[in-house]
Amino acid sequence: MSDSKQPTHKIASSRKQLTSFCMCGPYPRRRRYYQIREFQMASSADELESEDPDDELELDDPEPLSRAEACMPERLYDINEADADSKAANLEQLTIKEEDAWWNQVPLNNLDLSSNTLTHISPKIENLQSLTVLTLHDNALVELPPEIGKLEKLMRLNVSHNKLSQLPREMYSLPELRHLNISYNQFNEIDPDISDLHMLEFLDGGHNNIQSLPGGIGFLVRLTALLLPYNHVKELPPDLVNMRSLQKLDLMQNDLTCLPEDMGLLRKLECLYLQHNDILELPEFEGNKTLNELHASNNFIKTIPTAMCSNLPHLKILDLRDNKITELPDELCLLRNLNRLDVSNNTISVLPVTLSSLAHLISLQVEGNPIKTIRRDILQCGTTRILKTLHERALAKSKEEGSGSDGASTSAGISVTRLRAGQSDDGDMPANFPDSYHQPQFQCQCAYPCQQQMRQSFCVYEPLRNCREFHSQAQPHIYEPESYEQQHQNGHLGSLFVQKQQQQMQYPYPNCFMYQQKQQQQQFTYGSRLAVDPRWVYKLRHTRTLAVNLEELTEVPDQVFQIAKNEGVHVVDFARNQLSTLPNGLQLMKDLVTELVLSNNLIGYVPQFISQFTRVTYLNLSNNLLTDLPNEFGVLNTLRELNIANNRFQLIPNCVYELQGLEILIASENHIKVLNVSGLKSMPRLSTLDLRNNDIDAVPPILGNLTNITHLELVGNPFRQPRHQILMKGTDAIMSYLRDRIPT
C-alpha cells in the first residue's frame, strides 16, 4: 500500500496530557464493550480527536493490514517523548499555552489495545515505564515479549481471549502486579513462578486446559479471588488453604473428586463454586463462618454433613441440585440466614419439617425428587406453600408430643427452638459448649408448686430459669430482678423473648407464669429488670448477632438492645415477627449495626432515626406494608444493599436515589409504575437492579446508557418492549436493545 493511499487515525498527542490510550476496534459495535471508565478514557474516536488540526498525531491505521501483519503503531512506543514541535517552541509560544510544554506532560499509564488482530507486541513496550494498566484482551497473540517484565509500575494485565500457552518468566518479577487475567487461552499449566507475584490480588485462569495447580500457589497470601472454571484440575494442592485473604474461589467445570479437609483455614472465603465436578462428599467447613454462597450442583454428593450446617451460620445460597442426595438432615434449620436452597434432581423422598423454621428462605427448589410425603399440587405451588405445609405438620407433631404449639419439636427428636438456642434436645448445655461451665446437681426447693411443671414443659431455652436455688448455685452472674417474688408475679422471660405455649394447658395457680401467659394471650408484662441467661449473652458476644425469628413479637424491650450493645453485636435480625415499626430501643445500637433484617413483619413506616445508623451496609425491609421511606433515609452513605421487595411502593422513593454507595437495589413485587432513569443515573455504584413483578408500562431507552448496571431484572411487568424473549437473554441483551433505540 502506498503512503498516499494509506488512511490514518488522528488522536490527541501527548501535549494534551494523554494518560490513557484506547485503540479498541476495529469493530464499531464491539467498541462499546471495552470502554474503561474507571480511568476516564475516551469512549469513542470522536472524543479522541483534537479540534486543532495542527495538534494531532498521525498513526497508521492497522485495519487495512492482514491478520498476520497486525501490530501496534511504532509511534505509540515513544508517546511519552516530546515531539519535535514541542521542543522547538519558543518561550513566547509556551507563555501563551504553557500546558502544552513538554515538561508539563503526564506520562501514559493506561494502554488498551483490546479487540484488534494483534499477533505480537514489540519489545519496545519497555519504553512505556509509566504503564499501570495494560489491556490486550481479544487479540491473536501467541506470546508476549520478555520486556513486559520491565514495566515495574504495572498493576493490571489482561491478556484474555488470545492464543497464549505460557507467560514470559520475566513477567513473574513484576513487583506491583495485582490483577492478572489469562482466561480463554491455551495454558496447560500455571508456572510455579507465579508465587513470586507477592502483590497479586486477582487471578483469572478460566477456560484453559490447566491440569493441575503448582504447589507454591499458597504463597499468594494477598489473593482475594481465584477463578479457574472450565479447566481440567483434578486435585487441589494442600497449601491452597494458606491463602488466608481468599474470598472467592471458582472451580466449576473441572475434574475434582474431593476438597481439602482443612478448607476451614480459608476463614475469609465468601463464595465457593464447585458445579460440574466429580466430588463425592463435602467437608464440614469448620472455620468457614463467612461463607455466603456454596454452589456444588452436578456432582456425585450423597449426603450433607450434619456438622456443616452448624459451621456455616451466614450461608445464604446452597445449591446442591443434580447430585445423589437421598436425605436432608434436620440440622438444615441451623442455616438461619439461608435464602435459597436448591436440591432439585436428587433422590430425596422426605422434606424435614425443620425447613419451616428458616425465616429467610425465599426459594426452595425440590423438583425432580421422588417426594411422596407432600402432594404434587403443593410442590407445584412453590416455596411459600411448601413451607406452610411443613410448618403445619411441625405444629401437629408438636401437639402430639406435648411440647408446645410453636413447631419446636421436629423429626428425629430434634427441637427447632433448642437448636436455635444452641442446646441439645434434652434442654441441657452441649458437652462441647465453649467456656465449659457446668450445671451442678441440686435438689430444687422452689416455694412455688408450678416450678416442677415449668421445668418439664415450659422453658425449652433455659429449663431451670425460674429456680432460685439454680440461680444461686449455678448462675451467679445473672442480671437479677428486684425480687424473686416480683419476677414470679410479673412473668418470667426464659430467653428475653416471648415463648408460645400450649393454649390447652391449665394451671391452678393464679400467680403462675403459664396461667398469666394464657390469660394475656401470649403477651408479656415486662418487669423493670430482666433475667438474662449467660449462655444467651455468650452467644451474642461470639456471634455478634441478635437474631429472633418466628416469635410473633409486636415489640422488643429496650434492655435487649442495651445488652446487645454491650456485647458488640453488629447484626440485628427480627425477621418473621409482627413488628409494626422499628423498635425504639434499636437506636441504642446506631453506631454498631452493619446489617439490619426486618423482613416479613407488619411494618407500615420507618422512623426518622434510621438516618442515625451510619455504619449499616445491608438493610432488608422486604415483605412489609411500606409505601414510602423518610427523607432522612438518603444520608445512609454506607448502605450497599437495600431490599424493599414485596411492599406497597408505587414509585422508588426519591431518598433512595441519594444513596451514593448503593450497589444492590431489590424492589420487586411492588406497584412501581415509572422508571426514574435520571434518579438511577445519580447512583454511580448501582450494579444490581431488581424490578420484577411491578406495574411498569414503559422502559425508557436511555436506561441502556447506565452501563454500571450489570444485573437488571424486569420480568413480570406490563410493558410491551423489550419483549419477553429479550428479557430472558439477560442484562447485556436488554441494555443493548435499549441503546439501539435511543433517538439519534
Instruction: Output the strand order for the largest sheet.
Output: 2-4-5-6-7-8-9-10-11-12-13-14-15
Question: How many strand segments?
Answer: 23
* Radius of gyration (Å): 32 Å
- Helical run tally: 17
Percent helix: 10-25%
- N-end to C-end Cα span: 36 Å
**Helix/strand class:** alpha/beta
Mean pLDDT: 75
Q: What kind of sheet is the major sheet?
A: 13 strands, parallel
Strand content: 5-15%
Q: What sort of overall outline do the alpha carbons produce when their principal axes are compared? A: globular
Q: Low-confidence stretches at least 5 residues in length (pLDDT < 50)?
A: 1-17, 26-69, 403-531
Structure in words:
This protein has helices spanning 28-31, 45-48, 84-88, 91-96, 306-311, 376-380, 383-401, 416-421, 450-457, 468-474, 484-490, 513-519, 534-543, 558-566, 677-681, 724-728, 731-739, and strands at residues 8-12, 20-22, 56-60, 110-112, 133-135, 156-158, 179-181, 202-204, 225-227, 248-250, 271-273, 293-295, 317-319, 340-342, 363-365, 545-547, 571-573, 595-597, 618-620, 641-643, 664-666, 688-690, 711-713. The model is unreliable at 1-17, 26-69 and 403-531 (pLDDT under 50). Helix 15 links the parallel strand 21 and strand 22 (688-690). The strands form three sheets. Strands 2-4-5-6-7-8-9-10-11-12-13-14-15 form a 13-stranded parallel beta sheet. An eight-stranded parallel beta sheet has the order 16-17-18-19-20-21-22-23. It has a two-stranded antiparallel ribbon with strand order 1-3. The radius of gyration is 32 Å and the shape is globular. The chain is of the alpha/beta class. Residues 43-64 are annotated as: Disordered. This is Leucine-rich repeat-containing protein 40.
